[in-house]
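User: Can you help me understand a structure? I only have the sequence.
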Amino acid sequence: MASPQVANGNGSLSLKKPSETKGKTITCKAAVAYGPGEPFVVENILVHPPQKMEVRIKILYTSICHTDLTVWQGQNESQRAFPRIFGHEASGIVESVGEGVSEVKEGDIVVAIFNGECGECVYCKCEKSNMCERFGVNPMKKVMEGDGTCRFSTIDGKPIFHFLNTSTFSEYTVLDSACVVKLDHGHSLSLKNLTLLSCGVSTGVGAAWNTANVHAGSFVAIFGLGAVGLAVAEGARARGASKIIGVDINPDKFIKAQAMGVTHFINPKDEEKPVYERISELTDGGVHYSFECTGNVNVLRDSFLSAHKGWGLTVVLGIHSSPKLLPIHPMELFDGRQIVGSVFGGFKGKSHLPHFATQCGHGVVKLDNFITHELPFEEINKAFDLLIAGKSLRCLLHF
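Assistant: Let's start by predicting it. Here is the structure, written out as tokens:
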């Protein structure tokens, strides 16, 4: 296959000549996880051709999300499937397409989305939902939707399982066409920044815009200042929230958070009283919108009680892998507070991401601060260490 190259200043790519690998099995590098928490093994694997309504992509940039970390560590036994290729946040270029694919073609710039949009099911046709009946987020899914088999295998032919409809920790990957969004026109974003729209930034900003519909002058509390939490802050800042309170046990995150819209910082370790009481004091009774981005049920309770009685809304974004149930008594809902979950920020991938990319390109949402590290793909284990240590928001891996 010809090497793609930058064609212009906005990061668009093109192929020098038609693909030489179409219809053939590709040998390439991938980071394979062979067991829960085991170091990733960067090795040659086989990537088989796309089948009907599938797309094979050359990944150019991929990054690591806490969801990758949680499932790789095996915190939820029901999600374990090894060997496996993780990763779900990436930008790349279409290498080839399978039968029936018409929305993208060889050479198109695309991003992968873990929450697909087929455009035909009852969920996709509903304006109130961004779910998809066949291609929605499903961390337990480990094979392709079409025929229930894998497109990855070891050099000696043993299958390697898929992850979250995407599996981007590979130089080439195969996705259902419902999980591929073309983004090569109408924006001025670099390929690096496009990668962020696959998950983290879209999830956080979308939660503020679509799920909560944050309004100007409102009070916001964000529990967990990772990439998703800071994306919520960016979204709230863009909407004109007057007070954005960030809650995190890592004091080093406050400087970065300030640059992304956070006006107040609370470290629970420094507080003698419950965090929700401290937030109530800062906001005259509670915030309009609280966002739980940690996946901790105890934090979820603080987030819920931080919302103002009568109208406060709590949005759940954290991945709760434990079997523990909501720490909320039903009668507490009679105080007028509401709680709702948000997947991919309420964005319908194919329908909404192109416009969102344009907005980001115009500076409505600032993306540069989210990329804190860049490493060659072979150093993926170091990238995970940075995330575990709380030292990175998004570490961009490149081939």
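Now, to help you interpret it: The CA atoms of residues 142 and 148 lie 9 Å apart. The first helix runs from residue 66 to 72. Let me know which part you'd like to focus on.
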